[in-house]
Amino acid sequence: MLEIKNVYKTFNAGTINEKVALRGISLTLEDGDFVTVIGGNGAGKSTMLNAVAGVWPIDEGQIIIDGVDVTKLPEYKRAGYLGRVFQDPMNGTAAAMEIQENLALAQRRGKARGLRIGITAREREEYRERLAELGLGLETRMTSKVGLLSGGQRQALTLLMATLKKPKLLLLDEHTAALDPKTASKVLEMTDYIVNRDKLTTLMITHNMRDAIVHGNRLIMMMEGKIILDIKGEEKKNLSVEDLLQKFEQVSGEEFASDKAILG
Fold this sequence. Notes:
The chain has helices at about 45-55, 75-80, 100-105, 120-135, 150-165, 180-200, 210-215, 235, 240-250, and strands spanning about 1-10, 20-30, 35-40, 60-65, 70, 80-85, 170-175, 200-205, 220-225, 225-230. It is α/β, with parallel strands linked by helices. The chain is globular and about 55 Å long. The protein starts with a strand and ends in a 12-residue tail after the last helix.
């Protein structure tokens, strides 16, 4: 479902601020894979996600989604393949619009716009059912402005919008990092439910080692723009934070150090 082939990315090349962010990274996700990504600051996690999303062009390599080479496609043309939830709950939704209007926009992603009824009765009922699954009471507030919601409610809505039309690939960029622990746990629970129900191919960046271990069927760790660990199957199921730290030290020759990482 996703192939990243030998991708390089350098920012500010040839200047004093040159930063090599990706160093020939390669990664393949099978249909239905749920991959968690962890690494220290500057490891290249968000850079890899942005490369897939087409935020900026890569220097070398290929990015293929569901058999389609999207390497040269701009960000807006890749939107039809992707669902994405950002770290900041303020991103991904339109604050001045109603909850149901935000969902209608998400449902029409990639479709031609025309003059017709904004939201049909059938769509409204579908939105009510999907919102009820979140367990946050939003199904009774469909005409409320999104700007009135809490950060956790807004992030849950963004997750629902990103998956309303089953995307080829779901990108989660530290989507619980800005939430308090209780709310973050709830959003991750919703994430697991939706991903497993719809069998979504998912790439989730997290700063929490425990979350990286508990969620998904595969874990990769990045360092200095490269993938240094790729753990899956029974090995991942039996993994502990201590095991992960030990593996990192064995591969990298140094201790894991990140001022953002939560070890669990």
